[in-house]
Amino acid sequence: MTHLNTGGTEVGATAPALSEPRTAASAPYASEPRVVAARAEMVARLEEAGDLHPGPVRDALLALPRETLMPHAYVRRSAPDEPPRWELLDWSRSDHREELLVLLHSGDGVSIQHEGEPILGRVPDVRSGGAMTAMSSSMGMTANLLQRLDLRRGQRVLDIGTGAGVTAAVACFICGHGGVVTLDIDRHVSEAARARLMALGYQPAVVTGDGLAGWPGPTPYDRIFVSFAVPRIPPALVAQLAPGGRALMTLGTSSPSWPGLAVITRTPTGVVEAGLVAVEFGHRGGAGFDRLFLSAAFRNRITSSEGGRTRRSRLEPPTDTDRGMWLALDHLRPGLVRDFSAEDLTIGAPRCGSWVRARRVGYRRWEVTTIGPRDMWAEIHDVAARWRAAGSPHTYRLEIGDDGVQRVASRCGALSWALTDASHTGTGATGELDPLLEKGDSHAC
Hints:
methyltransferase activity, S-adenosyl-L-methionine
């Protein structure tokens, strides 16, 4: 979800714990065989992909009527390179229900708000232009993170970035909602989530405010979950973490291509320990996070090699699974965006117009085409050499100093960088920025 600096208001209250969602009058379709089957099939796919394992998170997802939390959702009716046109599907309409059933249980992210609009009481219609401003993240990433969070009965949980309320519902199912707080910057999102969680029989504290400041409710919290990317760890959230507690959040730059997962714990004696794990998928940045994109025109120039310089190289580029290297590249050589839809290794720097494309043409032979002031092929191999010299780390130490300084470092300290408040934008002349993240440009959700 998004985040801005605003005052906070509470729109919900706590109530006695309730472990099972109510599904009779409030969710009349939840027990229909096709709805139950859709949930079971989604869970089975998550298990097959390795994103979900037997345990309380699996039990929660099997029991959760997603159509109650997301009775309205948007589908894009325009092609990726066309101006966006969105249609709002409504579960109460029989002609929408089948498509919405598939969408909600596909495992993909689900868009629920357009341009900050009120969510309750909307009329299904087509929206043109603009952007989606609230969503439910992809279920594979969500399930994996919720399992890493290790939710347990009776814990106090702060869920930041309420979205559709899926994380809050799972926390209520597992922990009991008496200690669950879910916070969002948008009051429309908070109001809708509160109403829909109540329809399931859950009454966590649903509040509106700045997620970076946390919430002074039943602190300290045993678990803190942030569902938008941050450029550095918010000190307020560290301060609100209980001894024995754990916090998870995506840490990234302006590039959506190579996220890191920050795992912060506080020992029983009160010592804060943290690590940064290179991951394939991460949450998108919220409002104010300067995100970079590769426009359709930019990608077309790369495809046509317009103005590019081509040479042969025997240097082998790092593999996609060398995520620790790509994470380091993102921070040490900022401003790069990977086109994951391209057949060949393709990376652009939209701020200055530089790009590189590397194509295998034989054993240890690569055809490398570049353009622009940045030699990204050299940048990649420079960071890769430093990464290998540091032991090819996949996980880094995350140092959070009392003086506000935050640094990421390999265990031996040979590879490190500082975190700043501003997301990186790279250097060079002004480049092209897409108003929307286009499918295939990113591994962010």
